[in-house]
């Protein structure tokens, strides 16, 4: 008797990391989860947790030159638990792909034409699409017979109206080069906005939610009745909030100034704004835990970086309140949003006029569960809703291959 293929492997390849999960979609459980960090650096680190066997968490440190090496190491870990990629139980592999342009609005079976389109979009997602492509190519080489599905960060944002998606620049130039606001982290914004509605006991179609996805990359979205109507990232994942290493919003003339006055090349400016700006540019650290520790020790650069980060968040909360007209909930998610109570408290401080507040005791609770942190009777519900991009990608992948 051959067991049914009911399992999905999800690969979420970031610029220097891979998060992965193996899930059984019928038994509704995760069999293995893991993370490879610092790919391409001197020492990479793989952390693998074999949930199915109940085995111990395994940690390996050593150099992994690229995403190909990382993925082969992941495949070896899975094989060691009897969950290898050669398993007939595997139904598909689901890949997070960051930039899908306008062409991909749904999960898509990957073929050569799809790969070519993801490749064509590399210039507008230079930190992400190359890693996604390597992940896909390695996975296809390991299991050429298996459906490989791409789930795009941009898909959820394709409902944005033209007045939110267009930049106010010459239309002919914009159209010739497909310059518009695409938005990213869409899988997370979709999952979290729906999960927030459920937390309120409502259908997603009934509620307006502002989602703050605050990870290393960070973005805000305004979701009206389940549809995205605005988001803070644009043509590329550089626009919007202050991030770990990215500037977010700046006057575009800063770039001309850097070129003309500081003599920097386009590539150097790109590197400056994407990798040496944001929190790391302001204070040398991009990890919010380290920044809070330094603030507690009286470090002024860390305190200013934190204040700039919070000021930008408040501006988006105000903007999206105006865009939505009525806000039912604000949801904090991703590494910073889920874990950093001081960020949530500071972002909400003084926003009583918008109907937003946090209860200090509720905000201090540490938990993996979606939860409200606003006081009872608050006009806007403020929530912490852990994201699960991998589950969302697995569900979309399995739905496509079993349709
Ligand atoms: N306990 C914590 N307290 C504060 N910040 C945290 C904590 N845990 C993680 N973070 C922050 O979350 C970030 C990573 O978030 P994550 O959503 O995993 O990002 P990404 O998916 O972009 O790699 C870290 O850089 C750190 O700033
Ligand atoms: C699009 C994006 O910024 O993704 P990440 O947060 O994984 O870097
Ligand atoms: Mg992320």
From TrEMBL:
Pathway: Metabolic intermediate biosynthesis; acetyl-CoA biosynthesis; acetyl-CoA from acetate: step 1/2. Gene3D superfamilies: 3.30.420.40. It is an enzyme of class 2 (transferase). InterPro entries: Ac/propionate_kinase (IPR004372), Aliphatic_acid_kin_short-chain (IPR000890), Aliphatic_acid_kinase_CS (IPR023865), ATPase_NBD (IPR043129). It catalyses: acetate + ATP = acetyl phosphate + ADP. The active site is at 153 (proton donor/acceptor). Belongs to the acetokinase family. This is Acetate kinase. It comes from Streptomyces catenulae. The gene is ackA.
